[in-house]
Amino acid sequence: MSRFERDTAVEPIADGRYRATVDPGWAVIEGAAPNGGYLMALAARAMRDGLGHPDPVTLTAHFLHPPTPGEVEIDVEVARAGRRHTTIAAQLRQDGRERVRLLGTFGDLAAADGLTHVDRPPPDLPPIGDCIDATTRGVEVAEAGGYPAPPILERFDHRQPKALVGWSQGRPTGRGETGGYLRWRDGAPMDTLGLLTVADGYPPAVFNLDGSSLGWVPTLELTVQVRGRPVPDDYLATRFATTAITAGYLEEDGEIRDGDGRLVALSRQLALAAR
Fold it and tell me: Which alpha helices (DSSP H) does 68-169 contain, by range?
């Protein structure tokens, strides 16, 4: 069992109810709330349990209150079960309080068949060999007494273009963008539940804007559309961008492609530009 599978494992405890454990290794900051994409994957594993539709074709999460590491319960309710798709609602609860509410439609992407036409260029990234090993670098900086590496960083093997990590040394690109290549650090195969975490697995794109002094960008809502099962054992290529900040709200649009260059996921989240 991979680290991701272990940390998103669920146990049925009643009809439509599951028990799970939020692992602290998926936090953005040591000791802080867990990553939203990780929470989506945790809930999605309960939502798809027992279905003939294993892939989250679309999943939307509203983050109500951040949970803490430890036990949670997930209540699921089938809204509609069809031949091709099943739509399910879920609530992730902790200590009697609802923390995340989700609504998703699940299908079987291995059996999907129909028109395919992608009229968008892939992420413009340099070769992997020209990128920074951001995971190793982050861990080494922390071990040398620098800023602690985010726990979630260590779950991935991140390779990022040098320009896109310049914000961390006070050299932002001036554009709200981030991305690069990544895969699980333990070499586990990537699946469609993993894509949910990848869609929220980077520092906010807004950090690369000139003059950005944001230290906290809490997500209000995140939607991930999964378009295909990724090649399991290769790097994903990703791009995330923020183009509009209005009255303290911002969007972040994401695109994920697999090692064969196929579009496997799109995402959009609404977040607060908190100061």
Answer: 134-143
> Pairing state of beta strands 156-160 and 219-226?
unpaired
**Structure confidence by residue, pLDDT tens digits, 133-188:** 999 988 888 777 777 788 999 999 999 999 999 888 888 999 999 999 999 999 99
Q: Please report the domains of the chain, with CATH numbers, ordered by start residue.
A: 3-116+125-272 (2.40.160.210)
Q: If DSSP codes are grouped into helix, strand and coil, which group holds residue 42?
A: helix
* Residue 194 burial by Cβ neighbours in a 10 Å radius (0-12, 13-18, 19+): buried
Q: What share of the chain is helix, strand, coil (3-state, %, to 5)?
A: 20, 40, 40
What CA–CA distances, in Å, run from 257 to 76, 179, 192, 196, 229?
A: 30, 11, 12, 13, 10
Q: Give how far the C-alpha of residue 108 lies from the chain's centroid of Cα atoms, to the nearest Å.
A: 20
Q: What is the distance between the alpha carbons of residues 199 and 192, in angstroms, rounded to a whole number?
A: 11
Q: Report yes or no on whether pTM surpasses 0.85.
A: yes
Q: What is the pLDDT of residues 85-125, one digit of tens each?
A: 999 999 999 999 999 999 999 999 999 999 999 999 999 99
Output the CA angle 158-153-109, nearest 5 degrees: 65
Indicate the burial class of 60 (C-beta count within 10 angstroms; 0-12, 13-18, 19 or more): middle
Integer angstrom CA distances of residue 237 from 55, 72, 155, 164: 20, 32, 17, 14
Strands 156-160 and 177-184: antiparallel
